[in-house]
Structure formats: structure tokens, C-alpha cells
Amino acid sequence: MTSTDPHGGGTQTQQRRPTRQRRAVAAALAGFDDFRSAQEIHDLISRQGDSVGLATVYRTLSSLAEAGEVDMLRNEDGEAIWRSCSDTHHHHLVCRTCGATVEVEGPAVERWTNAIAAEHGYADLSHTLEIFGTCPTCR
Amino acid sequence: MTSTDPHGGGTQTQQRRPTRQRRAVAAALAGFDDFRSAQEIHDLISRQGDSVGLATVYRTLSSLAEAGEVDMLRNEDGEAIWRSCSDTHHHHLVCRTCGATVEVEGPAVERWTNAIAAEHGYADLSHTLEIFGTCPTCR
DNA sequence: AGCAATGTTGAGAACCATTGTCAAACTGCG
DNA sequence: CGCAGTTTGACAATGGTTCTCAACATTGCT
């Protein structure tokens, strides 16, 4: 580490350099609004003319996810799928075939999970809820 | 495909033969009440003296899951984890620290997901809902 | 601009959970 | 017992994801 932090800027700045590759990933993410696997995103970038290594796509997506700028969840096969997200808590209705995604909010569900957890004395909650199905177009 | 089905038997009988291996897996499952990976279950069987191939453990767990006799879900790394379960559809409230699990039913949630999906024309549904928190003991 | 320090990339190897292969062993039934 | 259909297991093969590390880009400094 040796983070001398010469300027003493308090909060350690998360240096994220604006590279061609990261811009390409961001651009790709902006180009669709459903969930895609890292490999699909990688292909998409290639098709857009850019060339970015697969490992870099993974790295970038992970760091974006950690920064809360993209949602990452897992499909039924356990594969990670990603997309840029709005910043409110929500869930997804995802098409198993084409990936079409609907963002849904579920105040009822939030309330229900809180009630259940309280009932059992659990605190510091989080939850995951995703719905998979086949969209009208894919049937 | 090529499912010639020579005898043209209507409902294909799901013959599940009671083998030593399947008994061993069932015994292992009975030996714990939290979620374990297939490999952990395989190790557990070995430690119990039995010897069952890893592939067989996977096969057996999958078929048990399909038959609704065990729950299979994925941890944050995308690995499949399993445990025996009651035979009704339910979700889990899992302690983030010690792993203590409470099975919860949520008819309200089921209804909600169905409604949401119908509203958007999605069919052939499935969903995942898991709640994570800190249990009373771990606070 | 030139340079040094350090974060970033990419090609491919490495990992590792999971599934496929197929001959040998086992089960149920006659 | 003997056959037909299942099941098993050792191992290869997959496939997504991460690691490695030398080459490269970016930033800050002079």
C-alpha cells in the first residue's frame, strides 16, 4: 500500500482512471436496459468496434457493482448478470429467454420481510427477490 | 431428443431405485439442518464411511430438488447449496453471521409475484426470495 | 516535454463447480 | 438364474470467473 496520500485528502480517493476500456464498458451498459452476462457485454463491445479484454470487462463490472453503479444478480444457472441501475431499491422481473427486464417496486414485500424478520428477532436486514419468467414476446 | 418411446407408454414412470448411494445422500442430508454445498455433502458421506461418487451426489441432489424434497439455492458466489426441506414452497430467513435458518412461508408474496408477472404478461414463473439478517443470538 | 511512480490491461493459464461419457455393476422382474 | 433397463464412478470436458505478470497508459512533478 504505502498510501502516503501526499495531499492528505482524508478519505482515500478511489483512484479510478478514465481509460478507453472503462469508457467502452460504460457505453455498452448504456446501450441496453436488461440484464446481460459479462460475456455478452464483452461481445457487444467488440461489435461496437472497441476491443477490451474479457478480464477487464469482469474487473470493471465488479468495481462498478461495488460502487453501486450497476446491479449484479445471478440467473438460475448461477451466472452473474449485470445492468446499470437506478439508485432506488427495487426488484426485477426478468425474461428467462431474452433477458427483458422490468423493474418493480414492492412496498408490500418490504413490509412483509420486515415483519417476518422482526417476528424472529432478526436485525440488520437485507433481502433478494427476483422473479423469472417468459415474457410475452418470447412465448 | 430422439425420444422414440417405443412402448408409447403415456406417463413416463419415474423409477427411482433405492440404491446404497441414494440412501447415503439421504442420510447425509438428515445429518444437518443448514445449507451445504454438494462437495461438503460428498465429504460428509465419505466421513460417514460410505463411498459415493461426486457425480452421483450431484445427480441425486438434483433429482431430489426436482422432486421437491430438498431446497437448492445459491450463495453469493453462485454456488449451489442444499438442504432437506418441508414440502411446501417457502423462503428463508438466514443469519448472516451464524447461518441459522428459519423457513418462512409467504402466501402474500406468492400472490404479489403472480400479480406483477401477470400484469406484464410474463408466464412460466419462478422466483427467489431470501432474507438475510443478524439473528438475536448473534447481536 | 521528459520522467518516474503506479494503476491498468490483455492473453492465456489456472481454478473450480458442475455436467457429460460410457463401460461396468446393480436392480427388479419373470 | 438371466435379461433389460438403471445407476454408478472415474475421468474428461465445459464454461464462467479469477489470477498472473509483463507491457502499457495515466498522472503528477519538474
From TrEMBL, chains A, B:
Keyword presence, Coiled coil: no
Localization of this protein: Cytoplasm
GO-annotated biological processes: negative regulation of DNA-templated transcription; regulation of secondary metabolite biosynthetic process
Coiled-coil stretches noted in the UniProt entry, renumbered to this chain: none
Pfam families, sorted: FUR
Keywords of the record: Cytoplasm, DNA-binding, Metal-binding, Repressor, Transcription, Transcription regulation, Zinc
SUPFAM superfamilies in the record: Winged helix' DNA-binding domain
Region listing for Disordered, in residue ranges: 1-21
Chief subcellular location: cytoplasm
GO molecular function: DNA-binding transcription factor activity; transcription cis-regulatory region binding; zinc ion binding
GO CC annotations, alphabetized: cytosol
Protein family: Belongs to the Fur family.
Subunit structure, as described in the record: Homodimer.
Annotated PANTHER family: FERRIC UPTAKE REGULATION PROTEIN (PTHR33202:SF2), ZINC UPTAKE REGULATION PROTEIN (PTHR33202)
Name of the protein in question: Unannotated protein
Source organism per UniProt: freshwater metagenome
